[in-house]
């Protein structure tokens, strides 16, 4: 009981609970055409994503100039690149739309068309004020973490209607940080950029509905100084083309993808020979030519294991969900690796456990994504547990031993107090989300048995493929597959503010 009320208090304190009514929803008797919501309704990041429409495809045409080298070198915090983009966004209206928003941070829009019709850029009008004709305006308030580009289409969009929005934009690139102060988004490096958008950092480099609920397909044309390599998601769309000292790299990502998993990293990368899983998944690796010594040896060893890792995870989770895999290993660092779809990004070097973790995310996190950010344990607990499984498969510590190594040591009450299935926006990447999350999955496996555990996992991946799921959805699948009431189990492991002692 004490634990239930604490979990309830934490829920209340982060403003979780029932999702707020979509502000743009049509009121009975109200106007037919209304504004789409300025957020997807996620209590952790209220203005990430947008309401009133779904994006089907982003075509990103980006021209990038990395920082110029200076002597003495400019301090890292002050380096700047230059990005110029044309984003072509195909979307479908989900309500009769008078206006709708995109998220865009730190860039300036110079032109915008909707279905070929030019909109006028104007200063943000007062709330509720009428605006004449097709128009756009951009509110950027870093203190409020509010970055909203509003588009007023004329004619207005009817529910079900598709529209093409073309946004021409650009600006200096910096080293943006998330709510916790970690680098993310388009992170300018001395030789290019590391592009890692979790949870809502993709808005730093293209106009986007920046929430996993609005998945879309992507194509990319990234133009960089000749000699630099630009790597995005999916597969190359033809060979790079060089003209006038600049090279254009084209990529095609035809699978549904959450915006935080988009990358277009730029650097002195050298492509390795393509390898393949037994099932035929092509593996495209790009390693920074400046990586040397132990970092290079470790990276090479990990990358060589990727085909076998895919074979192993396919035997447990089912077919690899996308058209390709592979790694981007940058000598620069953002302090972590990210499971960018089909092509994770690594900082400084790629360790074996990290590669297994980011590969497992392709199923658990990328094919099936969190419906709201509070469900992050379904990403990080799972990827951590899958890496335990890989270590066992590869002759190391068993998953059972890894569980015991996590479970046995004494830890502080604060460690156990965090409800990992609702850790708060500042707790998304807390160690408990990873390790108690993995412990939860191991305890669940012990409780229901291997056969049910893996059958339910495959059912989870089948049912929510190309989509998103919640913790409740996950529990429901395991209850169905096991025929057991698992509510007490999951309450103890995910919410109770103390060390779980039963499973
Ligand atoms: N999802 C990443 C992983 O594989 C971690 C991302 C950390 N991001 C951050 N902004 N701190 O573990
Ligand atoms: Zn992870």
Automatic annotation (TrEMBL):
Which terms are listed as keywords in the entry?
Hydrolase, Metal-binding, Metalloprotease, Protease, Signal, Zinc
Pfam families (UniProt xref): Peptidase_M1, Peptidase_M1_N
Question: Gene3D superfamilies this protein is in?
Answer: Neutral Protease Domain 2, tricorn interacting facor f3 domain
Which ranges are annotated Low complexity under compositional bias? 19-37
EC top class named in words: hydrolase
Q: What is its EC number?
A: 3.4.11.2
Annotated signal sequence is 1-18
Give the protein's cofactors: Zn(2+)
Report domain Aminopeptidase N-like N-terminal positions: 57-261
Task: For the region Disordered, give the residue spans.
Answer: 19-41
Q: Where is the Peptidase M1 membrane alanine aminopeptidase domain?
A: 348-493
The identity of this protein, by name, is: Aminopeptidase N
